[in-house]
Amino acid sequence: MVINIDKVTKSYRVGSGFFLHGKKKIFALDDVSFTLREEEILGIVGESGSGKTTIARCILALTKIDEGRIEIQGRDIQSASRKEKKDLRSRFAIVFQDPPSNLNPRHRVKNSILRPLLLRGVSPQEAKERALEAMEKVKLDARYLQSFPHELSGGQQQRIAIARALVLRPDVMILDEPTSALDISVQAQILNLLLDLQKEMKMSYIIITHDLNVIRYVCDRVVVMYMGRVVEMADRNTIDQHAKHPYTKLLLASSPVLDPKDREDKRAVRWERRRMSTSKRPVT
Predict the structure, then answer these.
(1) 278 pLDDT exceeds 60?
(2) 141 lies in a domain?
(3) How far is 152 from 186, CA to CA, in rounded Å?
(4) What is the pLDDT of residue 265?
(5) What is the pLDDT of residues 60-98, one digit of tens each?
(6) Contacts of 118 (CB under 8 A, 6+ apart)
(7) Residues paired with residue 94 on neighbouring β-strands, in sequence order
(8) In a domain, 152, yes or no
(9) N or C: lower Cβ tally within 10 Å for the chain?
């Protein structure tokens, strides 16, 4: 077991007007528990504000929890010393949402990839070798290291973001909405790349998304979050075909049907066809 999250709670106090700390308490996370296994792809799905990103920040000890326990390979990261936290974080890499905003527009791609390594004390020569290796893994020519972010397409920018994470040689990669800013055809390429890398490097993934089609395609297990709570957790087939919680069913119903032949509930498609045919009737 790589990560064990046990009854984690995180709340914020809010006020009104000029008061910065009011009496009202809002729970970003409320009694959240789940695990991440070795070489597993775990999907965390939910709408905006459900607590998906907050739990990722808590795993990295970037946000302090109120109650509960977060263990990384058996070590409680919240009570760890600064040095221990640094060592534990070194096993993680993050691919942020919207790569263009996370790549310095004034720096070449090479600098963006090398900087995390140089900050960790890796020699310039080894850092360059790792950068070339990562570019090969994400299937980009080494000449793109000399490019600026604005010279790249959305798919190429996402591959650069993945390469920047790979140079750290992590055990766990956290991906926040990895396909949200990409075209459908490019999304499939990026997801296939992530699957290939996961098998090759034997990493574990945490994929944070609101897109159930991403979950269906790559994830082994799914955690469904709603208003800071885990409302359902199961393998992807069980979630897709035998969801129990009303919120999960609502997410499934609102997810685009890419291939209606593979879905048991074709009623939504039939209803849409009926609505379209009715709307075309002449006005009398």
Answers:
(1) no
(2) no
(3) 14
(4) 46
(5) 888 999 999 999 988 898 888 888 888 888 889 999 888
(6) 124, 127
(7) 174
(8) no
(9) C
Three-state SS sequence of 126-157: HHHHHHHHHHHHCCCCHHHHHCCHHHCCHHHH
Tokens of 134: 């990562």
CATH number, residue 190: 3.40.50.300
Q: In a 10 Å sphere around its CB, with 0-12 CB exposed, 13-18 middle and 19+ buried, how is residue 254 labelled?
A: exposed
Q: Which amino acid is at 189?
A: Q
pLDDT at residue 16, rounded to an integer = 57
Confidence band, pLDDT 50/70/90 cuts, at residue 135: very high
CB 82 within 8 A of CB 63: no
Number of domains in the chain: 1
Per the CB < 8 A criterion, the answer to whether 224 and 247 are in contact is yes
**Count of Cβ atoms closer than 10 Å to residue 209 Cβ:** 22
Mean per-residue pLDDT of the chain: 85
Domain limits at 72? 3-91+170-279
E strand map for the chain: 3-14, 24-36, 41-45, 67-72, 75-76, 92-95, 172-176, 204-209, 221-226, 229-235
Smallest CA-to-CA distance from 256 within 220, 223, 213 is with 213
71 in any annotated domain:
yes
Flag whether 139 is in a domain. no
User: What does the pLDDT average to over 40-53?
Assistant: 92
